[in-house]
Amino acid sequence: MRQRFLFPVGLMVTGLTLAGCADSGKETVERAFQEVNVVDASNLNEVMLTVADPNEAVDYFVRALKQTPDRIDLQRGLAKSLIRAKRSTEGAAEWGKVVAMPGATADDKVDYADALIRVGDWARAKKTLDNVPPTHESFKRYRLEAMVADANRDWKRADSFYEIAVGMTTTPAGVMNNWGFSKLTRGDYTGAERLFADAIRQDPTLFTSKNNLVLARGAQHNYSLPVIPMDQTERAQLLYTMALSAVKQGDVTTGKTLLREAIDTHPQYFEEAVRSLRALEAA
């Protein structure tokens, strides 16, 4: 009799155990799919931030945020995409939302300051950088600190930050160019010339530094082209820049000579130089 009663109970217990295992297995599978979806979404976010068209990325992150508005990674992705799309005003506003969210990092504050500089809000950019912990040391942070100091004409502080930033990157040409331009605006033409030359040695393709180097030399009444890598078109353009610098310094005759040389050097019709030379001759 006992066995007759216990046997069905045993079956029932076994059945419950199997049902419990089935439920547990289903939950495990669902969790696995959720984890895969999270990984796929993270990968897609990275793709949208790198190779996708920036405006398409903006649309993607806007849609994603409508479904999960509390996710800081999506808000960060939207802010970055707007900056990539050169929609700086919108990007600055979205970065402001990022830094106000739980989980915001020091890097987020630095990116917010970068966005504020892009829209010309130097005061808020400085305030934002001042709120970044001093222990957070990054190339971008110091580069922005140098730019803000420049804007405030705090030359000593700017030089200090530029020097730190140069030492924190393997590609310092852009920072050297900015530092050189800072020296140029202060009237330190020798220092500017040195930094532009250093930038060109780091990146011989950086035409902006070549043009700035010619301006620094022209400001010192030195109208000979520097010995730097340049093709024929670049040579003509640099001669044109030097000609304008000579005219600005009052060396009009030298300016005319340089303009003629620029016109003869350019492989095509150099309209700007021709127009400038005609204006000088007419005057």
Automatic annotation (TrEMBL):
Which Pfam families does the entry link to? TPR_6 (PF13174)
Q: Which InterPro entries match?
A: TPR-like_helical_dom_sf, TPR_rpt
Protein name as annotated:
Flp pilus assembly protein TadD, contains TPR repeats
Q: State the organism named in the record.
A: Pseudodonghicola xiamenensis
